[in-house]
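User: Second chain of the day. Same drill as before.
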Amino acid sequence: MWTTIRLFFRLVIWKNFKGVFLFFIILFAMITTMKTYGGWINQRHFKKFNESNIRGTLSYVRGSGTGTGIDIGYVYKYVFLPDAHLWFERTAEIGDSVIKPAFSDTLILKKGNKIYPFTFRKYPNDK
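Assistant: Same format as last time:
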């Protein structure tokens, strides 16, 4: 087994060291760019969400690793990252009401007779 590993290292890794090294440099640059650009996009979306006075009925709820997106009346689209990320997505449904005053740290989800307050993450530059 060790002979196979040494042979693999000699034939593939060592002879193609420049190619492997270049691959990892390009991979590192791509990941760094995506994280930086993605953070900038998310911060821009959060700024719109934070400054908005939201009051309306959900027409769409979607979630991803970068945040939760909600549409209010098919017109206003917001992206934010609730602290209870998955719980918000599982609780909120189309037709539920949401309320969030501008610059508030809490979004209120009204589901029938129940009220669910959700806090969300803020970016370091925002107050």
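The chain has a mean pLDDT of 79.

User: Great, on to the next one.
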